[in-house]
Hints:
The protein has about 350 residues and is an alpha+beta fold.
Amino acid sequence: MNNTISLKEQWNKLKENNPHLRIRNAAFALGVSEVELLALNINEGVTLLEPHFEALLKEIEQLGKVMALSRNNEAVHERKGVYLNADFTSTHAQLFIGEDIDLRIFLNQWVSAFAVSEGDRKSFQFFGKDGEAIHKIYLTKDSDATAFEKLVEKYKSPQQDVNLTITPSIPNVIEKADGEIDVFGFQNEWKNLQDTHNFFGLLRKFQVSRTQALRLAPDHYYAKPINKDSIVKMLEKVAETQLPIMVFVGNKGIIQIHTGPIKKTLWHEQWFNIMDPDFNLHLDMSKISQTWLVRKPTADGVVTSIEVFNEMGDVIVQFFGKRKPGIPELAAWQEIVKDLI
């Protein structure tokens, strides 16, 4: 109990000195996980929910237009819309497939859920076993606040004292030496891909990490390292031409996707941002270690992406031209990325 009181006092002092400090940054400063700080305020604007994630998510549509937030340590993806077309039939990834809210969810990584009320700001927040936030759903001015309160009451845990077990994330497995990889077989299968979704299976089959795979690509046509400033150049060009793109940001528990044009881009300190009414992206350029231009063959033609990694080799963000299965990639997107080489 003394440790809890001490931590809460430390957090309160930190907030007094830094009133605009976000809880994630406060947790990092205090050497704890975000969920540990959040749990300190149970019964003070924070409500522990039963971990019935699928059931709750299927009812989020009742809230109307909300803001979905998914992030990792280097990028934040915020998209407004309605949670439509839920599909929880797959044991691998659960889905919301809408023009606005487009998610790939991995519920085996979800551990805890909370409802949070901070004045007029209300949200559902979901966390993994490492205590880090996986996904957050914020009400907007167009949301149904009464529906929110009904869902909180419906899924409220009967016990509001939480005993948190935090399990730190395990770093990526050390790569196998290139000499131990069947490089010829790997390259041949890459050149004969029929679907971009099969690329992950290719990595697993040949036991290569994603960045190792890019290094071992058949040639520079398929994967070429580019300067991280190319991301800014690309996004500014996309905004200027109103070319619709796809922006993927995720973590171990979710991938969140924006599809459509972007309009307003700007710098704030080391962050490069997209600041549109219904879509925001915040990308910490200082934490980018590798940026690659990647091409994968499919039954519909070549699919081109810009893939961005941190120093651990984890994906930060991926950019594609807007496309759907059965439709070739936009020629205008190919022209923009060609100029980045």
